[in-house]
Design brief:
By secondary structure, the protein is mainly beta. The protein is built from 5 helices and 29 strands. The protein has a 5-stranded antiparallel sheet with strand order 1-2-29-28-27, with no helix packed on it. A 4-stranded antiparallel sheet has the order 3-4-5-6, with no helix packed on it. The protein has a 4-stranded antiparallel sheet with strand order 7-8-9-10, with no helix packed on it. Strand 11 and strand 12 form a beta hairpin.
Length: 405
């Protein structure tokens, strides 16, 4: 969830999770008003905007190819010194249209195209806009826009049969990957608090006031897998569910009144339930072996990143220094990207840069220039480049594409 200013943007995931948990405990007024005003969501013929093109990208020289071994919590990142000592590939800056609430989504559609999601507010309504950026043509084009879409986790899901889905608050829209035209809209049940679609687009997992549910996309064959329990200060409610890549397992985060208690894993038929106690976990990623899970928190004060093996039940700490934000594994599961955060108090300074960790050697290296805030790191399918968004001290959002090889 992106917030309007860098100060709000840097608030802790724990505070954000508290907000979500409060929403889980009660039916929010805004959600009810939204459902009343737009009972069927945005009509499909109104949701897909005409093409809008934006300026070609800029290029900026960035820092080093190889960082000093073992980046620590107190590493001082001086871009001028680093760029002179370790020259590296040039990063491409993509100009973005203005958006009050900034970038909420960056994902690779394929090696040559990026999907970029922007949040904005218009006439007291929140708007989600999706753009496609063509790296070869250097062109940014709007292909989808929906009002009242924002809230909870909005993500892109890659599906079989050359399709992808945009998971919004009250509906899931499936697109043709080549034409970017909508193929189908799946309406979510009222009070849904996070959802995911199976890779074949036929099965749905979602969290609502009852708990964690699976069903066909028409909501038939619905089954409650994990119940929400307790009330008010004692509530425990599943949210943010995800299918494994082979659709054999589901994961969810268990939300408390304040923060979260951990991460659960269960099979779609309700068997094999496991629970891993990890306080304030805020993001999750299934690895390609459909057995391991990368998860953690990106807290303003300190971070946490863990690798869970659901087969053995072991949990491995990936962030001893507790300063590595938003860890994400590439598709080969051989490298991890993250944003290293450095803060100094006198005089105050806040800096972030992207690092790449090789899992086999354990070595970390720089992969970006220094920015105030870094968000939405995303690996290209080939693992030869990454994309990410940044926020300046003035609140300006930018998109960057960084070649790694």
């Amino acid at each position: 969830m992106l917030l309007p200013t860098p100060v709000l943007e840097s608030m802790s995931i724990k505070r954000g999770l508290l907000f979500i948990c409060l929403l889980l405990i009660s039916h929010t007024t805004s959600a009810c008003l939204s459902q009343t005003a737009h009972p069927g969501g945005v009509p499909i013929e109104e949701a897909f905007a005409p093409e809008q093109e934006f300026a070609a990208p800029k290029q900026e020289p960035v820092g080093p190819t190889q960082a000093p071994a073992g980046p620590s919590k107190n590493t001082a990142l001086n871009q001028n010194e680093l760029s002179q000592a370790f020259p590296m590939n040039r990063a491409m800056e993509v100009s973005l249209p203005p958006a009050l609430m900034g970038v909420f989504l960056v994902d690779w559609l394929d090696e040559g195209r990026l999907v970029v999601g922007l949040q904005d507010s218009e006439d007291d309504q929140l708007t989600a806009s999706l753009y496609i950026y063509d790296l070869q043509q250097k062109k940014l084009t709007l292909f989808y826009q929906g009002k009242d879409e924002t809230g909870y986790e909005m993500t892109l899901k890659h599906l079989k049969d050359d399709a992808f889905a945009f998971l919004g608050r009250d509906k899931i829209t499936i697109f043709d990957k080549t034409t970017l035209q909508p193929q189908r809209v799946i309406r979510l049940p009222p009070s849904t608090r996070g959802s995911d679609l199976s890779s074949d687009g036929q099965r749905l997992v979602f969290c609502d006031d009852r708990g964690l549910n699976v069903a066909d996309t028409d909501l038939s064959n619905r089954k409650l897998l994990v119940k929400r329990t307790g009330q008010d200060l004692h509530v425990k409610a599943p949210f943010s569910p995800k299918w494994s890549n082979d659709d054999s397992q589901l994961l969810y985060i268990l939300c408390l009144y304040e923060g979260t208690e951990g991460l659960g894993v269960i099979q779609p038929n309700g068997t094999g339930h496991q629970f891993f106690p990890i306080p304030d976990v805020g993001y999750t990623q299934w690895l390609n072996d459909n057995r391991q899970i990368l998860c953690g928190q990106s807290d303003y004060i300190q971070t946490l990143s863990m690798l869970i093996d659901t087969g053995t039940g072991t949990m491995t700490n990936l962030d001893d220094e507790r300063n590595k934000c938003g860890m994400i594994m590439d598709r080969s599961n051989e490298r991890i990207a993250y944003a290293l955060r450095v803060e100094e108090q006198e005089p105050y300074r806040h800096e972030m840069t992207v690092y790449i960790r090789d899992r086999k050697s354990g070595q970390d290296r720089f992969a970006s220039s220094v920015h105030y805030q870094i968000r939405n790191i995303s690996w290209a399918p080939s693992s030869r480049q990454i994309a990410y968004s940044t926020i300046s001290e003035k609140g300006e959002s930018k998109l960057w594409v960084q070649p790694l090889e």
